[in-house]
């Protein structure tokens, strides 16, 4: 390793940590660990640092993609894996931000299969982490398992930090507080898509900050990860300043996720908290569509120009979506589908009309 390059990176790491939104001061100790190259060819330098001499070592990364630390405890055995995961999550977020700033559609960069993400919109620039941890425990019996095996309830090593990372089973929950509104009015645009909430745009305009939510892991069981995603959002919505949830290209009311919490309490799958069922009026009737099936490795669906009641079309899509997810069924072009033995709706596949990407087109007809 070039000594000059390492020292420059070390200085970058120290300056980044001094930011009031991060560590807030110069670290007591800062040491270079190693360098690795990620699958995209980006060279990443791993550092470990301590806030005080008695604090635990924490992980930090300096790379061509930027400087960052999620303030997670440094683990020598998993340092490269942890750094790569943090960097991958960051690159995804900033890629989305770049797309939005360039004026591209919000759906241009869809979440990868199995990765659940959302933005919790806040009316002021505060986040009560202690309250969130308490709500997770009271609501779901989940006590965040941090990588050092402690619950980190004191928050001493995370004081002044804007990230929260913990594991539940095989899934990693990553939360990142951003003390700015969602850029370029994207949240307000998405709020306008929620036809069930008349005040969505007006309320969304009041947000001053947001919390990024991501569920990262192997996603061997996307249903379990989806339920965890809804649980985390429901608990975050109990923050006094939570005004909306931006996910699947729509902004939901916080109260909506309280209803999802009730569904989970009754042993029901919270399908509405994971898939958006949209309806658009056309000259010939209505378009109905889904957003979010990619989380489960499946195509989204569209019904086009159907001369039927919109609620009927939406309920049909809800039934088909629940069947596909809960039974792990993959629909294909040339097949037919229906909610009863007598209902047969032909399926084709082509470029989406209501949303970007390839979608399944269902030729809706009654029984």
Please, could you describe this protein's structure?
- By secondary structure, this protein is α+β, with helices and mostly antiparallel strands.
- It folds into three domains: 3-92, no CATH class; 111-270, no CATH class; 276-362, no CATH class.
- 29% of the residues lie in helices and 27% in strands.
- It contains eight helices and 16 strands.
- The protein has helices at 3-18, 79-101, 129-140, 186-191, 200-204, 222-236, 254-265, 310-326, and strands at 29-37, 43-50, 58-63, 66-68, 116-122, 163-168, 171-178, 209-217, 242-247, 250-252, 276-282, 285-291, 301-306, 336-337, 345-351, 358-362.
- Strands 6-7-8-5-9-10 form a six-stranded antiparallel β-sheet.
- A hairpin with a 2-residue loop joins β11 and β12.
- α3 packs across α6 and α6 packs across α7 (254-265).
- The longest helix has 23 residues, at 79-101.
- The protein is elongated and about 70 Å long.
- The termini are far apart.
Task: Give the gist of this structure.
With 367 residues, the protein is of the alpha+beta class.
- State the total count of DSSP E strands: 16
Name the structural class.
alpha+beta
- Low-pLDDT windows of residues: 100-113, 148-161
How many distinct domains? 3
Write down the overall geometry. elongated
Measure the end-to-end span. Answer: 70 Å
Percentage of residues in strands? 25-35%
**Rg, Cα atoms, Å:** 22 Å
**Integer average pLDDT:** 85
Tally of individual helices: 8
């Amino acid at each position: 390793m070039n000594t000059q390059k390492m020292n420059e990176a070390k200085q970058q790491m120290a300056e980044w940590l001094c930011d009031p939104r991060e560590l807030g001061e110069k670290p007591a100790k800062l040491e270079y660990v190693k360098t690795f190259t990620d699958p995209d060819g980006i060279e990443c330098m791993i550092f470990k640092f301590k806030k005080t001499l008695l604090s635990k070592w924490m992980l930090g990364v300096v790379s061509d993609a930027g400087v960052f630390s999620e303030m997670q405890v440094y683990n020598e055995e998993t340092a490269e894996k942890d750094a790569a995961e943090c960097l991958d999550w960051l690159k995804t977020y900033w890629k989305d931000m770049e797309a939005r700033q360039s004026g591209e559609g919000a759906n241009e960069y869809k979440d990868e299969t199995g990765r659940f993400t959302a933005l919790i919109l806040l009316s002021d620039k505060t986040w009560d982490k202690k309250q969130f941890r308490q709500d997770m425990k009271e609501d779901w019996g989940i006590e965040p398992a941090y990588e050092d095996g402690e619950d980190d309830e004191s928050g001493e090593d995370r004081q002044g930090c804007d990230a929260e990372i913990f594991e539940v089973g095989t899934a990693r929950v990553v939360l990142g507080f951003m003390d700015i509104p969602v850029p370029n009015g994207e949240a307000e645009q998405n709020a306008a898509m929620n036809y069930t909430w008349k005040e969505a745009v007006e309320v969304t305009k009041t947000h001053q900050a947001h919390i990024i939510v991501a569920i990262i892991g192997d996603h061997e069981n996307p249903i379990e990860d989806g339920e965890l995603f809804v649980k985390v959002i429901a608990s975050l919505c109990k923050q006094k300043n939570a005004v909306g949830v931006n996910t699947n290209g729509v902004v939901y009311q916080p109260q909506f996720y309280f209803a999802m919490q009730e569904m989970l309490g009754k042993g029901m799958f919270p399908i509405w908290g994971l898939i958006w069922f949209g309806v658009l009026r056309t000259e010939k009737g209505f378009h109905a569509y889904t957003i979010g099936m990619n989380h489960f490795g499946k195509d989204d669906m569209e019904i086009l120009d159907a001369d039927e009641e919109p609620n009927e079309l939406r309920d049909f899509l809800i039934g088909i979506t629940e069947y596909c997810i809960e039974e792990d069924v993959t629909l294909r072009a040339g097949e037919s589908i229906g909610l009863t033995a007598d209902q047969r709706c032909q399926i084709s596949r082509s470029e989406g009309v209501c949303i970007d990407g390839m979608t399944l087109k269902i030729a809706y007809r009654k029984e």
